[in-house]
Amino acid sequence: MSSAPSPSAPTSTAVTIEPAEARARFAEFTVVDVRTPGEFAGGHLPGARNVPLDLLPAALDELRAAGTPLLVVCASGARSATACRTLTGHGLTARSLSGGTSGWRRAGGELDRPAGTEGIRPPWAMDRQVRLTAGTLVLVGLAGGLLHPAALLLSAGVAGGLVLSALSDTCAMGSLLSRLPYNRR
User: Fold this and answer.
1) Which of 58, 53, 110, 106 is nearest to 78 (CA)?
2) Which of 68, 69, 77 is nearest to 104 (CA)?
């Protein structure tokens, strides 16, 4: 069942659709996967177009030309919710798949992989890459702090970035990591 924002809710709230309803209405949508190409290659909804979140503004005309409502997908639903806010802000009708590809799979949906990617291990999901990078930087800052107290600023900077990320519902580290070559193949 989809949920629409109430009249008192902020207009920045993304409209979501549950996997079961999305499967039942699948033919009505143009599916847009906003994950990195590497994540997309690891498995995506059938017929999905890969438009990474950072490239979404450049694809607005193409998506508008599809002429159907958009079903926006990512790994968990967070990036697709951000994408839906962008799309609806430009006058497009878009729904974020609740739970992302993980929720789709749990609900019995199939995932496709591009031809020629059999046996190739896809990169980790972006949230996992961010957790690894942030955790590593915090540990390096703490260990470096044993040698020189100024190194603790690295850990403080990462902590501040994580707080800002949570408050703004954005992720600068994820955006940077998505530009790495292994996320672009």
Assistant:
1) 53
2) 77
**Other beta carbons within 10 Å of 178:** 24
Query: Is the confidence at residue 37, as pLDDT, over 60?
Result: yes
Query: Of 10, 16, 20, 4, nearest to 98 (Cα)?
Result: 16
Cβ-based burial of 149 (10 A; exposed 0-12, middle 13-18, buried ≥19)? exposed
Which residues contact residue 74 at a Cβ distance below 8 angstroms, ignoring those fewer than 6 apart? Answer: 33, 34, 35, 53, 80, 83, 100, 101
**pTM of the complete model:** 0.66
| pLDDT tens digits, one per residue of 146-172 | 999 999 999 999 999 989 888 887 788
CA distance 51 to 23: 21
With tokens 């190409």, the residue in question is 37
- Provide the 10 A C-beta neighbour count for residue 69: 16
Between helices 152-168 and 126-147, what is the axis angle to 10°?
Answer: 150
